[in-house]
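Slide 14.
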Amino acid sequence: MCGIGGIVYKPGAQALPQDVLDRMAAALRHRGPDGAHFARLAQADLIHTRLSIIDLAGGDQPLTAGTGTLIANGEIYNDPQLRAQIGPEHFKTGSDCESPLRVWQREGTHYTAHLRGMYAIALYDSAKNELLLSRDPFGIKPLYLTEFSGGIAFASEPEVLLAAGLSPRTLNTQARTELLQIQFTTGRNTIFEGIDRVRPGETIRIVHGSIVERQTRPALPAVTRPLPMLSEEQALKQLDHAIMDSVQAHERADVPFGLFLSGGIDSATLLTAMQHLPRTAPLKTWTAVFDAPNAANEAQTAATLAHAAQAEHETLTLTAPMVWAHLPAIAACMDDPAADYAIIPTWFLARKAAQDVRVILSGEGGDELFCGYGRYRTAARPWWRGGRRMWRHGMFDGLDVLRTSPKNWREGLSAAEHTAHAGPTKLSALQALDIAEWLPNDLLLKLDRCLMAHGLEGRTPLLDPALAACAWHLPDTLRVQGNKGKWLLRRWLEQHNPAAHPFAPKQGFTVPIGTWIAQKGHLLGELVAQQECIQAIAKPEQVKVLFKTADQRKQGPAAWTLLFYALWHRAHIRALAPDADVFDTLSQNP
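Slide 15: predicted structure.
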């Protein structure tokens, strides 16, 4: 797990000076605190900062073979199988990231079709001045690029390109509108003009500093019509094999690892699988709980499950003063912004876990693959039975806070509805939309940034290709029954760990941010309203009212979104360090 960056030049372009690469490496250091290495080649520069997980002594990058040089951020879980197929004698290191390089030597540009894992890879062929930029199908690991007069620069995070001066700190206002309305941004374009995402599953072929081809490896198998009906017993056997195989593969590491345990279905599934696998050290688990009136609390359920699994368990209590002290730093770590308030517990849990482990397993993907969200069931109904389109309302609709009514904010989602791999049923089409946009651009982005801010690797066993294929081939009757989503996953958990009570009503993991904001509403409203970036988009007096009423259902998320945006803008458009608490930060040079 690492940070990567680099530049590939057009013919005749002058290589950028070393200080540009040094600035890129410095901006990547939190992703790879164990060392930085450079490869200055004739027509390309490559940078790798390392977080050592596998082959601690011999896994430094860049890795070379023939005319190929590779840098990678990720884990290749089928590395042992690939080594056996290719022949161990062809490998120079024990690093799992050497496998993609050896596969590329044999298979060429379609090498990622043979990889099982999460990855962002840059692979440069010096004989052709050809660079391949590849990202795993679910978009677990991030990768961005920008074009400039001399060629193309790329990095694990947009801030790396900004800090190096390779792209200006200019807002994409359409993406900003999208962020305000749905709390994340969709598609290829980021919120920074001129910086694009490498899309999930994409391999971009760059020759002589120009993009010449894009290939896509889909996250989901092609299922164009309903499959033969599986019995529940047959499906449970297939699911059991897929879960155990995935979790075992995701546990491969030469350093300690642990689990974020919420008390919900997904993390309980991972814990259940982990407790049935052999281990040489106790499993470590962490849960967050919120110190606020009426806050959802599944900490006791999580602790009970952890103790039954003989795990070393810690419950971290989050308070409003803790949040106000660190919120500027939390917002700053989200350079590609997602205003999901789950960044708060994720950041604090990562900070705590980093004291003991280098790798965290987490349950992202369970709701999207196994049909857990109620919005799927609602949207799948016909309109006369209350069916409603997903993401139909924006965060600020009806609040009279923004200066102008947001326009075209749903364009990215509408495009994804037409292009996402839909599958054979309406339910699967709705899931596919979230897998294409919400999952990589909110949930996985949140996990990546919050963990990497503390030098932690995050792994998501529920997003393994084989497990995803198992889930995607399920009939709707094994996705949803009555008002229960994730039916088959619940049944599996009921069989293997009935103490998890998988059919009990879920309390949820909602951060009480509205309550906390309302408690400081007068002060926070004044501070946020005076920020220049907020005044450009919102009515100051209405902002103040919004913050005073943030304990209401609709006002709370909207107030939080403006607070996040104000802090994010300060860090990534104005490039000011988050070196104080939220009140002092917003008081400085508004």
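Speaker note: Residues 395 and 554 are 8 Å apart (CA to CA).
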